[in-house]
Amino acid sequence: MVTAILTLLAPALTITLLILTLILAKGDICPGQRGRIHKLFPAIGLLWLAIASLKVEAFLVVFAIFYFYSKVKTGKTRDKGPFWVIHLANGFGLAFSGIVVSSQATLGQSIALLTSGLLLGSAFAHLLLVIARSRLQAFHRILPMSGVILAMAFALIFLVNAYQWPEEVAQGYLIELLMSFVMLLLGIVCWIWHLIRHTAPEKRQLSFAFFCLLSACVGLFRLYAFM
Predict the structure, then answer these.
(1) Where are the domains of the chain?
(2) pLDDT tens profile 44-55
(3) Which residues are CB-contacts of 212 (< 8 A; sequence separation ≥ 6)?
(4) Are the beta carbons of 48 and 153 closer than 8 angstroms?
C-alpha cells in the first residue's frame, strides 16, 4: 500500500507545485499571502523526500524545493526569490512523474495514474491554499469543479478497464471496488460542499476530502494489478 501511495503522490505533488508556482508568478496576491505560500514548500519537500525512497531521482526535486525555500522570506514579502529554481523543481517533477506514469504495466494503468495525479494534485493544492488563507476566490471554484470532472474521468477509465475482468475476479473484489467508489463520491461531495452551501472552504473539510480521494485512488489503483 505504501508503494501505491507514493506512486500516486509523485504526479499529484507535481500538479500541486505547478499550481502554487502559477499563483506565485501570476496571481494578484498581497505580501502576506506570498509569505504564507512560501511556508508551504517544506511540506511539499518532505513528501517528495518520502517519494525518494522509491527512486533516488526524486532527490533532485527535494533539493530544488528546499533551496528555493532557503532563499525566500516567509513573512510579508513581495520578493519572488530565485524563481528559476522553482521552475527547475517543476521540470524535475514533470520528468520524474512522466517516467513513473509511462513505466506502468498497461496503458490503462498509466492513464489512470495520470488522471488520479491531476485529481489529487488539485485537491492538495486547494487544501494548501486554504491553509495559506488565500483570497484568490476563483481557485476556490475552479479547483473543486475541475475535481468533479477528473473524478468522473478516473472512474470511467477504471470501469472501462475493469470490464475485461473475469467474472470470478470481479466478484472477489466487489467489496473493495464499491468501498473505493463510495470514498471517491464522498471525497468529491465534501470537496464541493462549500460551493453547495455558498460558504468559504475550511481546512477540516478539504483535509477530509483529500483523505477520501487518496483512499479511493489507492484502492482502485491497486486493483489494476488484477486486470
Answers:
(1) 1-103, 137-227
(2) 999 999 998 888
(3) 183, 184, 186, 187, 190
(4) no
